[in-house]
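User: Please fill in residues for this 185-position structure.
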């Protein structure tokens, strides 16, 4: 008397399940996706990248389109005010740039020695805060070191130095805004 192998029923059931799955993929179940679903008339772009489809909804994956009032405030794809950001870069352009994060609003320069002053060097860190062009929208910290022997030692910086650079950034930001032709709020 021969005994049936336990593998055969399992293999048969697997083959039967695979055939059922393949049969479900017949042409009767395939939906023909038309090109018109992805045009501007389809309604997909009218939800403006928001979960609820409303202007006050939740932004998904950063796909919200800019609104006209964003352009008036100088807001672009940056996380901070575009005029303040550009003005800060322009003002600190004489120093070598170490890093810039336009979404976080942080600009860090590398050490800079002014011509003729080989015994001291400066470094700046600028913080652009917010999306509005305001007088408190930028903070600049200046660091100074002087050479002592073979190394550099931290030195005191006059508090007015950072404030003076901030004033220059604000003046440049106002100039950029007036050049763009956008009326201020």
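Assistant: Residues filled in for all 185 positions:
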């Amino acid at each position: 008397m021969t005994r049936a192998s336990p593998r055969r029923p399992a293999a048969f059931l697997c083959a039967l399940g695979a055939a059922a799955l393949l049969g479900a993929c017949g042409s009767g179940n395939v939906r023909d996706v038309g090109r018109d679903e992805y045009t501007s008339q389809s309604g997909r772009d009218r939800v403006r990248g928001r979960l609820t489809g409303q202007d006050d909804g939740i932004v998904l994956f950063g796909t919200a389109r800019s609104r006209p009032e964003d352009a008036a405030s100088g807001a672009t794809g940056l996380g901070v005010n575009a005029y303040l950001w550009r003005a800060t870069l322009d003002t600190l352009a004489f120093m070598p740039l170490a890093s810039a994060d336009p979404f976080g609003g942080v600009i860090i320069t590398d050490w800079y020695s002014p011509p003729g002053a080989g015994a001291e060097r400066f470094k700046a860190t600028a913080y652009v805060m917010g999306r509005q062009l305001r007088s408190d929208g930028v903070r600049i910290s200046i660091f100074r070191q002087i050479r002592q022997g073979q190394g550099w030692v931290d030195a005191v910086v006059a508090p007015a130095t950072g404030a003076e650079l901030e004033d220059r950034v604000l003046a440049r930001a106002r100039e950029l805004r007036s050049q763009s032709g956008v009326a201020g709020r």
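For context: The longest strand covers residues 138-148.
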